[in-house]
Amino acid sequence: MSTLYQYDAVVIGAGPNGLAAAVDLAQAGRSVLVVEASETIGGGSRTRELTLPGFQHDVCSAVHPLGIGSPFLRTLPLEQYGLEWVQPPLSVAHPLDDGSAVTLTRSIAESAQSMGLDAHAYERFITPVVEHWPMIADAFLGPLRPGPILQHPLALTPFSLNALRPAHELLVHTFKGERARAVLAGLCAHSMLPLEKVSSSAAGLLLATLAHVYGWPMPRGGSQRIVDALAAYLRFLGGEIMTDTEVKSIDALPRARAYLFDVTPRQLLRIAGSRLPAGYQRSLSRYRYGPGAFKIDYALDGPIPWRAAACLQAGTVHVGATLEEIADAERQVWRGEHSERPYVLVAQQSLFDDSRAPEGKHTAWVYCHVPNGSTVDMTAAIEAQLERFAPGFRDRILARHISNPQALERYNANYIGGDINGGVLDLGQLFTRPTVRIVPYSTPAKDIFICSSSTPPGGGVHGMCGYFAARAALQSVLR
Ligand SMILES: Cc1cc2nc3c(=O)[nH]c(=O)nc-3n(C[C@H](O)[C@H](O)[C@H](O)COP(=O)(O)OP(=O)(O)OC[C@H]3O[C@@H](n4cnc5c(N)ncnc54)[C@H](O)[C@@H]3O)c2cc1C
Question: 12-21, 256-265, 415-424, 428-437 — which is least confidently predicted?
Fold first, then answer.
């Protein structure tokens, strides 16, 4: 490294992608500094006592099929640095109004059985995708690259053809009964898109496949453990981390050959816009943010009293009953409205990890989708949904911590208007986020890269955006 530079690379933001980028660069022998605005590292992967002493809540991400399945994170020795995955017996339970629940486990056959009359249809639908997971991960967990797709066109067909279809149409055509349609609608709604939109199936197909290949685990002790392990490994490799330092201008940073930004386009424009050509600035300013999240963390006097007993075996419970109800709720959010019956995502970590709450007590992590920037209080609507499937839920509440979209954005500047995915994940922004470029992590400024979830493959704690951004830097300015 020339003495002109203090570091080979400075990474702005210590979220999972920023840390993954830093680790990849450090593994390649480059000197790296990570600069983080908050007092603690982790971005969307942090754990705190949000309600009462002894209750450890995941502030953002809670459940990590994408973490355990990440082709990059899987190569790192994170277990040696304290990461331990806890696998609940069921990945997902989806309660219905008749008091039963559809469930997803590692076993395709067992999961299919819970889908009643669509058991065979589900096995036919998911088995070819699960069988080809390594190729699918290679082709789709990153930028759209012709290489992996051309190498295995036939193996990828069951995934790629279905992933591009609107979820509603795919589910109605593939399944006859409500049970399979409902549980898969819950998975597809993770896309935060209306289920009528092209590509709204992609997230659902990916998450169902991961349930069978790796399960949907959570780290013992909370999501914080993922980033703590990344940070500890980074320090072992010689990387440095500076917290409590908000970067307002690229000019204030130590001199480096490359700057990798774990921020979204709007922030990049503020911090480094002056270094970027006008045309690229215009493209970034057209980047679209999606719906927000309204989140409640609960300290509870006991487990959630689900009517369907299977829900107590599941790390994640999807509350929204039918395909039509979930589709209706997500459509309303997209139109800027608030559903009276929102689709509610629930994680119940303390059922499977006793470090999360005092003995006999429990945590619940709950959110629903709302329009970007919404200020509407969804507490009553969320709790009505929970009472519907778990009568007596309200009586178990000891304390709540509420985060609306503004609170999420105050907590982490990347959550613009409460958008937890770093931008809409529709076809127009799935593979080409943040703008159309052959290497989407690069910018026209040769030393500036983007490594956040505003690049492919998008939201989630998987570190793949960081990994690909680091690769882009290593193949150009850090070669
Ligand atoms: C409520 C909620 C639930 C979620 N649930 C899940 C889940 O269960 N599973 C899952 O896989 N994902 C989940 N996610 C999504 C996941 O958290 C994000 O997709 C992921 O954290 C993105 O990682 P990132 O590194 O790109 O960005 P972030 O995690 O947002 O990290 C960005 C970092 O950059 C820092 N930063 C921003 N601006 C500056 C600046 N100017 N100077 C210095 N530092 C700066 C921020 O403080 C932050 O630490 C959830 C998110 C939320 C909010």
Answer: 428-437
- Cβ(118) – ligand 1 distance below 6 Å: no
Answer yes or no: is the C-beta of 64 below 6 A from any ligand 1 atom.
Answer: yes
Smallest Cα–Cα separation from 326: which of 457, 184, 473?
A: 184
> Nearest residue CA, atom 13 of ligand 1?
61
- The single residue listed with the structure tokens 């943010």 is 289
pTM for this prediction: 0.97
CA of 5 to the centre of ligand 1 (A): 29
CA distances from 351 to 103, 201, 217, 312, 363 (A): 17, 30, 13, 8, 8
* Cβ of residue 404 lying under 6 Å from some atom of ligand 1: no
86 phi and psi angles, rounded to 5 deg:
-105, 125
Q: State which amino acid sits at residue 131.
A: E
**Closest Cα partner for 99 from 396, 394, 388?**
388
CA-nearest residue, atom 16 of ligand 1:
460
Q: Is the CB of 247 under 6 A from ligand 1?
A: yes
The burial class, CB within 10 Å (0-12 / 13-18 / 19+), for 160 is: middle
pLDDT tens, 262-292?
A: 999 999 999 999 999 999 999 999 999 999 9
Query: What pairs with residue 402 in β-bridges?
Result: 296
294 and 372 in contact (C-beta within 8 Å)?
A: no
pLDDT on residue 2: 57
Q: Whose CA is closest to 473, among 123, 6, 7?
A: 7
Of all atoms in ligand 1, which is nearest to the CA of residue 18?
Answer: 25
Ligand 1 pocket test, candidate residues 47, 60, 226, 266, most atoms within 8 A of CB: 60
- 41 to each of 116, 198, 225, 379, 453, how far by Cα in Å? 45, 36, 11, 29, 16
Question: 272: part of which helix (H) or strand (E)?
Answer: helix 265-272
What is the structure's pLDDT at 143?
78
Q: Coil, helix or strand for 457?
A: coil
3 state DSSP class of 24 = helix
Distance CA 193, CA 188 (A): 8
Surface-to-core class of residue 457, CB atoms within 10 Å of its CB (0-12 exposed, 13-18 middle, 19+ buried):
buried
